[in-house]
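Q: I have two molecules that I believe assemble together. Could you output structure tokens for the complex as a whole instead of separate predictions?
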Amino acid sequence: MAATERHIRRRTEPTPARQRVVGDPVPGAVVDLRSVSKKYPSGDLGLEDATFAVQPGEFVFLVGSTGSGKSTIMRLLIKEIEPSYGSIAVAGRDLSEITRRKVPYYRRNLGVVFQDFKLLPNRTVYENVAYALQVTGGTRREVREKVPDILRLTGLSTKLHNYPDQLSGGEQQRVSVARAFVNHPPLLLADEPTGNLDPETSVGIMQLLYRINRTGTTVVVATHDKAMVDRMRRRVIEVSHGRIVRDERTGGYEATESTESRESTREFGALWREGLQ
Amino acid sequence: MRFGFFLREALRALRRNAVPSFAAVATVLVTVLVLGVFIPVVQATNGAANEIRAKVLVDVYMKSDATRADVDRVRSRIEDDTPGVGRVEFISKQQAINAERDAGRGDFYDLLGSDPLPGLLRVTPDRPEAIVQVRDALAPMSPSGRRTVADASIDEVQDRKENTDKLLAATGVVKLTIGLLAGLLVLASLLLVANTIRLSMYARRREVEVMKLVGATDWFIRWPFVIEGVLVGALGGVTAIVLLGVVKVSLVDPLAGDFALIATTETMNFGLLVALLLAASVGVSALGSGLSLRRFLRV
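A: Yes, here they are, computed for all two components at once.
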């Protein structure tokens, strides 16, 4: 009874007046969220009035503790869930205009990396990466050309025929990144890519993501890996209790004085060169 | 190229999920076996009942003091004046006794001394429904509600209706029971197949989710599952049918010569039965695979 009442109230409740989509679409933005709110059917608030835009070629960290709304943003961006309010545009396309049938085609333009890798357990490394191509109707020839290339880039050339359960966590995440990038998507989303990995392996994955970013791909990484964010000094968007509380060009995990930032970027540069050698 | 890819995907899934696949094949096999046995049994019972229904006769018993002339008169009356009559056969006292002796009951009649069996005229109607007409013509209802006879030398007219009714009622009960049982079995097998498929789908729901996240369309994911269902259904169905065929050739066919039930009744053509079972097994498992995937595709 009580549940029914709550349900009816929620349905008849008018959208709060303060929630109005403000501003125009940001021109040229890869990701454009305007006044986005997400209320889950359970009544939990996932995201409230979030507005931000990401320009092509940017490397953005979404930070915040668990339950802050990072994953809600990610899930909204891959259209796994629908926003309760506001508009989301990716590469100039309004997501609300994409019908359920068209969602798979939309997702092919995204590379997505998950915390739990989400590899197909019955397929080898090679087949996992190839699947992303086969899904888009890639021919066998295309698969033969592209997959070894991307696996070389991610440093998995020797593990082609291993199954995911024969790989370490870091290697599995590399496969996942390779799969996300094999179509060369304009936008790569990573939801806690290093959440299950030790710090050293995490550096490797971040280097990989950074290298992908350098090819011109926009990368959005949701993470609570403080050390990594502080080291890389990229743009940081902090989410807390469903609200965006900070958006800094070159920030750390926590709001800090900007004097440090230059130094840390240099530190990452060193790390980056180290990784190349 | 597409079909080749889907087929390879389906085969890979079968290979990698050998145990659940085997369970599904076994389920289909058992189901088809049960159906393959039950359908002919139900049909045979039906056929037996029909046969009894077709064997309706009217026996006109003559009085024991009836002379040859009486018999001829009654006979011509039946043959010429009664509508709906197909064939009339006279069975004399002697023939009746011989028939009883052949059946091994001669001793009783020897014991009785005199001959208690009357001569009779056995009338076969031209069609089963005409039996009422024939009976009413030979033994019309009197105003008092009792049957009289059309000729003075007729002792009694028996149409065996009661016997037939009893038999039909008995086979009806058997038919109903078997039919009900068959229905339950079909239902149980459907649920079993559906459940097996659902289980194997459930085990692979993560895989489906990943495929969706990579950007696979519903049908891109579904086709391999449907093909897998077809393969499982075909494998189980064919194995069951081969087993049924072996049983039929080695057991039922030799017995058919001896057993009236199997020999005389109209059971379904074995080829038709095979085709039906195969279509059902393939159809159910393919459809089941395709449909039970639906809820996992909502990502």
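A: One point stands out. Chain B has two domains: 2-52+166-296, 57-159.
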